TrEMBL record:
One of its GO terms (molecular function) is L-isoleucine-2-oxoglutarate transaminase activity. InterPro entries: Aminotrans_IV, Aminotrans_IV_CS, Aminotransferase-like, B_amino_transI, BCAT-like_C, BCAT-like_N, BCAT_family, Class-IV_PLP-Dep_Aminotrnsfr. The keyword Disulfide bond does not apply. The keyword Methyltransferase does not apply. PANTHER family: AMINO-ACID AMINOTRANSFERASE, BRANCHED-CHAIN-AMINO-ACID AMINOTRANSFERASE-RELATED. SUPFAM superfamilies: D-aminoacid aminotransferase-like PLP-dependent enzymes. Acts on leucine, isoleucine and valine. Its EC number is 2.6.1.42. Keywords: Amino-acid biosynthesis, Aminotransferase, Branched-chain amino acid biosynthesis, Pyridoxal phosphate, Transferase. The gene is ilvE. Pathway: Amino-acid biosynthesis; L-leucine biosynthesis; L-leucine from 3-methyl-2-oxobutanoate: step 4/4; Amino-acid biosynthesis; L-isoleucine biosynthesis; L-isoleucine from 2-oxobutanoate: step 4/4; Amino-acid biosynthesis; L-valine biosynthesis; L-valine from pyruvate: step 4/4. This is Branched-chain-amino-acid aminotransferase. Its cofactor is pyridoxal 5'-phosphate. It comes from Gloeothece citriformis (strain PCC 7424) (Cyanothece sp. (strain PCC 7424)).
């Protein structure tokens, strides 16, 4: 069971989470005409009266960009202000996950984006680890990631997540923890809610934007950190067979952070993950605001 935070932002105000209810005829529920974000908030280990939000600006920009696909103008700075107020209102004392959502709130039958009301809501829940941090087993999904020519993949549109849901359930019901999806070209794309990196001969490799991936914020952070650590990074297409012979493979995302992969299908990967471990250590320190070079990535919110 989830422990939801006491207050939600709903219809332009903060109200108790249990009172935030929508109609069964809500357009977004029927047509997936919604888009979401996802951020972690962690209590500052040095100051429990402060919650640290990682790359708040980027998360708000991406949600604002997603909203455009729904024909809804929601400026990033407006989202930012509401998310800060959301944290101040809820005063969490444990790590949390914040879920902002823009959606077609009108009641209507035809699938469309024009002439239908939109709204913005936020709720949150307590959240620790999303995947086992010591490593997971992955299946290659029989489901393929959508193509950008038929789906706005640069937005986190809710409808797209049917593919993630199918892939995740297929993986778990066949004894794996997570699924790796290929794109329509048969190249490695991403997992159900995470981007993917592999390491081969000391080089960090990840699919580029032309591979139909989500523009992940953790992915961007890792590429930046790797450059500082002098780890060579290459954004390029990855073949499925490279996964099986990689020296290291990891998944990354706001929820999953950096999660090493131990096995893919019937291929066991090497036990030691020196580059993954190095990146993970650095990213953890940055998210805890302990790295002076990355203070501008961390937004400390005073909750008292
Ligand atoms: N891919 C997909 C499909 C996702 O849902 C997510 C989670 N938002 C990611 C990748 C990772 O993105 P981020 O690092 O911005 O959380």
């Amino acid at each position: 069971m989830h422990n939801f935070l006491p207050f939600a932002y709903f219809q332009n105000q903060f109200i108790p989470f249990d009172d935030a209810k929508i109609s069964i005829a809500t357009h977004a529920l029927h047509y997936g005409t919604a888009a979401f974000g996802g951020l972690r908030g962690i209590p500052n280990p040095e100051n429990p009266k402060q919650i640290l939000l990682f790359r708040l600006d980027r998360h708000c920009q991406r949600l604002s960009q997603s909203a455009k696909f729904l024909h809804y103008q929601l400026p990033a700075d407006k989202i930012e202000g509401i998310l800060i107020d959301f944290v101040k209102k809820n005063k969490p004392t444990v790590p949390i996950y914040i879920r902002p959502l823009v959606y077609s709130s009108g009641l209507g039958i035809a699938p469309r984006l024009h002439n239908i009301d939109k709204d913005f809501l936020v709720y949150g829940l307590e959240m620790g680890e999303y995947l086992a941090s010591d490593g997971i087993n992955c299946r290659i999904s029989s489901w393929y990631r959508q193509e950008d020519r038929s789906f706005p993949l640069r937005g986190k549109i809710t409808a797209a997540y049917i593919t993630s849901a199918l892939a995740k359930t297929e993986a778990v019901e066949s004894g794996f923890d997570e699924a790796i999806l290929m794109n329509s070209q048969g190249k490695v794309c991403e997992a159900t809610g995470m981007n993917i990196f592999i390491v081969r001969n000391g080089q960090l490799i990840t699919p580029g934007f032309e591979q139909d991936i989500l523009e992940g914020i953790t992915r961007h952070s890792i590429i930046t950190i790797a450059q500082e650590l002098n780890i060579p990074v290459k954004e390029r297409a990855i073949d499925k067979t490279e996964l099986f012979i990689a020296d290291e493979v990891f998944l990354c995302g706001t929820a999953a952070k950096i999660t090493p992969v131990k096995r893919i299908e019937n291929y066991t990967l090497p036990e030691s993950n020196p580059i993954t471990d190095q990146l993970k250590e650095k990213l953890t320190a940055i998210t805890l605001n302990q790295d002076p070079n990355y203070k501008d990535w961390v937004y400390p919110i005073d909750i008292d």
